[in-house]
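User: I need a structural model of GRF-type domain-containing protein from Gossypium arboreum for a docking pre-check later this week. Nothing fancy, just the predicted structure tokens so I can convert them on my end. Input:
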Amino acid sequence: MQPRIRPDFISPQPVSEYAYDGPAVKCHCNKLAPRDTSWSDLNPGRRFYGCSDFRDGGCDFFKWYDGKMCNRATELLRQLRDSERNLLKDNLALRKNAMDLVAFDGNHNGGSSAVDIEVEGGRSICGIEGEVALRKKVLTMKQKIKVIKKEKSMYKMLFSCSMLCTVCIAIGFFFGSTCKRHVQLAVANVD
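Assistant: Understood. Predicted structure tokens for GRF-type domain-containing protein:
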């Protein structure tokens, strides 16, 4: 018997079903084989049985539960899968932007946020206080770094100016005393 290679089943939310209708299906390891859903390009949405330890050194047991779908159904499921993945990606980006806005608003309104953005299931983004607090800290640290960099450049400029002044005073003192001596000699020669 030639070993079968298990298909790629990247599911947006992988769900292995151990409780399913019909007789229990066991793999070559004699363990209950869960029913999973394939999200590969060739078999999107098609369910199958496979060894629960397949990725961790288990056996190569594999058996389709659903029959082959027509090309139109396969294409539609592929499009729906891709749309769902894009929506999940967009949702994550929007949640990140919303948390950044909440953190920004909290830093500029005395620490309390008037922004209340609702996301999935009626939850409010403000309920994710740990992430918001962390983003506030990061934003605060970035602002402090900006201030420190400005202060550092001001101190550098102040130091440069004070060194220039010191050099000018030293030069003035040196030339001032030499000029004074030349003037005294000139006055002495005139008399």
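Before docking, keep this in mind: Residues 1-13, 111-115 have pLDDT under 50 and may be disordered.
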